[in-house]
Specification:
Family: Belongs to the class-V pyridoxal-phosphate-dependent aminotransferase family. NifS/IscS subfamily.
Number of helices: 5
GO molecular function: cysteine desulfurase activity; transaminase activity
Shape: extended
Helix content: 40-55%
Organism: Aerophobetes bacterium
Cofactor: pyridoxal 5'-phosphate
Protein name: Aminotransferase class V-fold PLP-dependent enzyme
Order of helices and strands: HHHEHEH
Structural class: mainly alpha
């Protein structure tokens, strides 16, 4: 029986070019990038080189590139980070009721911390009504 993979939303098969680029890291660059010894410094350089290359590719500054372990960490980092940066300045988050659990759980956490969160419904096709988004904006 032929297997068909249909969960590209969660993860995708590794592209051969990515595997080729990553093989040196898997084989010999495996130190803890936060340490000062040579194995760690080699790993740090590989990460910094990747950050520089990605920044150049998308027209960003290397300092603007943050690597995370995956989508859940990235969602938490973004939502909680922005909320923390806006602490004491209000802040209102508008999201849909069908977001990934990582987003919804982060929003629930922020609600407990006193942030105002608005969860908008979607139609049967998963679309937000732009007029409802406009109505939800508080400032």
């Amino acid at each position: 029986m032929r297997r068909i993979y249909l969960d590209y939303n969660a993860t995708t098969p590794l592209h051969p070019g990515v595997l080729e680029a990553m093989l040196p890291c898997y084989k010999s660059i495996f130190g803890n990038a936060s340490t000062i010894y040579s194995f760690g410094q080699e790993a740090r350089k590989a990460i910094d080189d990747a950050r520089e290359a990605l920044a150049c590719l998308i027209g960003a500054e290397p300092e603007e590139i943050v690597f995370t372990s995956g989508g859940t960490e990235a969602d938490n980092f973004a939502l909680k980070g922005v909320a923390s940066a806006l602490k004491g300045k209000g802040g209102h988050i508008i999201t849909s009721s069908i977001e990934h659990h990582a987003v919804l759980f982060a929003c629930k956490y922020l609600e407990k911390m006193g942030k105002k969160i608005t969860y908008l419904p979607v139609d049967r096709y998963g679309w937000l009504d732009p007029s409802r988004v406009k109505e939800a904006i508080t400032n």
